[in-house]
Amino acid sequence: MHAVLLADEDDFEGWRDSARGLAIAGVPPRDVTWQVGQGGGELFGDEAPPPAADGPAFAVPRAFLTLAQTVICHSDPERFALLYTLLCRIRSNSKAMEDGADAIVQRLERMAKEVRRDMHKMHAFLRFREVAEEGAERFVAWFEPDHHIVRATAGFFVRRFAGMRWSILTPELSIHWDGERLTEGPGAARADAPSGDPVEETWKTYYSSIFNPARLKVGAMLKEMPKKYWKNMPETALVAPLIAGAQGREAAMVEASKRKLSEAEVQGLATADKAERRLQPGSNALAAWEAILADAKACTHCHLYKHATQTVFGEGPLDARIMFVGEQPGDQEDLAGRPFVGPAGQLFDRALGEAGVDRTQTYVTNAVKHFKFERRGKRRIHQKPEAPEIEACRWWIEQERTLIRPPVTVALGATAARSLFGRVMTISRVRGEPLELPDGGEAWVTVHPSFLLRLPDPDKKRDEYARFVEDLARIGQRAKALG
After folding, report:
1. Pair 314, 389 in one domain
2. How far apart are CA 19 and CA 83, in angstroms?
3. Are residue 153 and residue 259 in the same domain, yes or no?
């Protein structure tokens, strides 16, 4: 028997190196035991350590390594042995992973799916709360994952909250980010995490305003957001009354139909929630938007805030049928604090007018909220945002779209498309056709108006401008068709 002692529950590198040496030495899976911790005591006293991997190297499919990295994070103690068994099969049959009927392949794929789902829940249901700490702000969150995913998800939170000082506490281990370095600490208890902070009332106002009873499916909601996570999230205190209110409105509509009210009265009940969302003083929607704006003005999620004049947030009616997303504010936008007011914005306004789209009835924003530039003397020259900066600002776009719920969202340029879809997209391949966003909404992609300004050839500029106007006209007609 060969005993393998791994450093941690998610020690992929340790498993990989040991498994490679065992496979090269031809050790069958039944002769290997896998253990995690500081030592196995007398249980492993007479067992041999794994042999060194000094034999001929062998290749495995990239898909297997990806699967193994994910499955290692699972809580099933048999995962190491199952992965080693599959590795041995792959060494003798490179297509072993393609056998979808194989019980081990099915079990490992199921484990990987459960790990990915747990990671998704950590991304979605973890809530930071501010704690008092001398010298600087600090935020602390508590989470209880089902699997060993904390290290695997750390990068997500570092990218998303790069400018914050935060800690995530879990029963197994804790991770801490000081703005520059990520460190680990021992596990914690729920009592070690704060129970609330002043920001939560603002968050509850926002959540109430975006709650959509027309899409309410209680069973599906509980499946996606089990009650286990409710105690971590301030907005869940509102779920029961919001559900009750939605059910009350539904009952009113049913009663209205029984009493054979006029079509106008029934329609009035059906559109009550939409009316409440309009940008009016005192409305929930306006309060929520103002709360998001206040947070965005203090955003330090990436380094761009250090040099820009101010955050440039979106503007427009909250019941807009079209939401335009550009790249980032330019020099004039940075100074004015409003999107699309510089040369590209003026060209954009002219094109919208020719396309028959009223800009005042659209919501206009940018994928990145701070101006990125290179200073040359007194001039500030625009620089294209990079992936971490786009990712850091995606949260703001998601909140704007969630609040406004536009029937049509338009990406102006490649940066905006990457922000909306979460991946690099080629404009020429997707331009001019409706696309489905990850959340189910409809999006269109076209060029950014600054692209037209940069074209040196007059004829080319004229043709591309005409095509841009045509895109905007089709988008306007589509928004009308969606009602």
Report:
1. yes
2. 9
3. no
The CATH number of the domain where 379 resides is what?
A: 3.40.470.10
What whole-number distance in Å separates Cα of residue 435 and Cα of residue 432? Answer: 9
- Cα-flanking dihedrals φ and ψ of residue 18, to 5°? -70, -45
In 3D space, the residue among 413, 342, 328, 415 whose CA is nearest the CA of residue 371 turns out to be 328
26-69 pLDDT per residue, tens: 999 999 999 997 644 444 444 666 666 566 677 889 999 999 99
The alpha carbon of 456 is separated from its chain's Cα centroid by a whole number of angstroms, namely: 38
d(CA 348, CA 366): 14
Average pLDDT value for residue range 184-203? 71
Q: What does pTM read for this prediction?
A: 0.50
> Is 355 in contact with 446 (CB distance < 8 Å)?
no
* Three-state DSSP class for residue 91: helix
- Inform me whether the pLDDT recorded for 342 exceeds 50: yes
Residue 390 phi, psi (nearest 5): -65, -45
Which residues constitute the domain of residue 92? 2-120
Chain-centre distance of CA 67, in angstroms?
A: 22
Q: What is the pLDDT at residue 344?
A: 95
The DSSP secondary structure of 113-130, one letter per residue, reads HHHHHHHHHHHHH---EE
Averaged over 245-259, what is the pLDDT?
Answer: 53
Please, what is the average pLDDT of the chain?
82
> What is the rounded CA–CA span in Å between residue 372 and residue 364?
19
